[in-house]
Amino acid sequence: MHSLASHQYDSGRLLSTEKRERLDSQLSEFAERTGWNVRLVTSYGPGSRPDDNSIRAAWGPLGKRSVVIEYDATTPSLINLPYLGDDVVLVLKRPWWFEFKGRFGNLFYVREEGEQTAILNSAAVLMDCLGRPDGCAVVPGLPEEQYYFTLITSVAGGLVAGFVSKLEPQGFVQRRWVWLLLFSPLWASLFVNFGLGPVVSRTDDKLPVVGNCLGFALGAAAPYLVQVLRPPPLKDSQ
């Protein structure tokens, strides 16, 4: 039986003794400092999960500032959320929790990083966001696959901007730059909303921002570079 002093119920034995003790110390210090009670349950299949009576006996009633995260190594998503206190949901909205599960609970992340790392990293991010005065709108950190997606959309936005800027004036459009304005909802959305937005909201690192800006510039310049680098047409022999 786990005591009330413990913030973990490691029935799945997913953590080593050293890491379990270190994490429990961090959770205890976090609870004393902030008043947020983060409880972790690990299991390995339905038979190893503690029942509700065991959890209540170990931790007592859960309040508005409590959250229970369950890590089950046998489910498609490592992370389950059996209990979110009312105050917890006010600070970290439902979309945040969906992203949290998708980030640290997906099979690819767990397979690459390992179960222990997934548990420790997710607990650290949860404590970080709960410890902020206004919480977090998104999960901090920029996964590699998500950055590549933002880079692709930045380049796509640049390509759209570059191609429409080469359209010939016709009808009510008397200048080429007017085409750029007319199509700005498309290329600006690709670049700003899907290219820069997810980056600046998740990390303070300037390198991904610079990379996406260069990608946009390269995409915008591509139509002109193609024209410049295109070989001249062969002259008909006399």
Automatic annotation (TrEMBL):
The chain crosses the membrane at residues 177-197, 209-229. It comes from the Eukaryota. Keywords: Membrane, Transmembrane, Transmembrane helix. The keyword Transmembrane applies. PANTHER family: THYLAKOID LUMENAL 15.0 KDA PROTEIN 2, CHLOROPLASTIC. This is TPM domain-containing protein.
